[in-house]
TrEMBL record:
Protein name: NADH dehydrogenase [ubiquinone] 1 alpha subcomplex assembly factor 4
Transmembrane portions of the chain: none
Family: Belongs to the NDUFAF4 family.
Compositionally biased region (Basic and acidic residues): 16-27
InterPro entries: NDUFAF4
Subunit structure, as described in the record: Binds calmodulin. Interacts with NDUFAF3.
Natural source organism: Pampusana beccarii
């Protein structure tokens, strides 16, 4: 509702406001300072000479400068393994779907891929006596509590086709 109201105020008298803005005289830009122009330097050859002149005093000071650099010694940080996982995650091979190369090949234990989730939900919907929560938990290495909540809260879509004679009645 607020979007409609805002749109009404935005589009109110748009054409006359646009004409008023277009017909305004354009502001004149501020004048440029004469030293900011590059062509001002080109007119003064003494500036060019000063730029390209070598200063002997500065060159001798530069020759006296000696820089020696060394890499700091490498230190091993204590507790550097905090970011590393303490143990390798166990992975299991997935039950591959129909997509072949696009399917995920390995999944950590306790997790399932989308293809597997849709498959197990569909199997449970079609054959709930065979595909119980305990069997699904054992088959896919999942916790029983998570499988029960998955089966309770997620339901796959069912495609229904109506016969032609009932389409007219609908």
């Amino acid at each position: 509702m607020g979007g409609r109201l805002a749109r009404v105020f935005r589009s109110f008298n748009v054409e006359s406001r646009a004409r008023r803005e277009i017909s305004k005289e354009k502001p004149t830009p501020a004048p440029r300072h004469p030293t900011s122009r590059l062509d001002a330097q080109a007119g003064h050859p003494e500036i060019q000479k000063e730029i390209y002149r070598k200063d002997d005093r500065l060159l001798t000071l530069l020759k006296d400068v000696y820089v020696e650099s060394r890499d700091p010694p490498v230190r091993v940080k204590d507790g550097g393994g905090e970011n590393l996982p303490c143990k390798q995650e166990e992975k299991r091979l997935t039950k591959l779907g129909h997509l072949g190369d696009l399917d995920v090949k390995k999944v950590p234990k306790g997790k399932i891929s989308i293809v597997e989730a849709l498959t197990l939900l569909n199997n449970h919907k079609l054959h709930p006596q065979i595909w119980t929560a305990e069997k699904i938990a054992a088959e896919y290495s999942l916790e029983l509590k998570e499988v029960k909540s998955l089966l309770e809260f997620f339901i796959p879509f069912a495609v229904q086709e109506f016969p032609k004679d009932t389409k007219k009645a609908i």
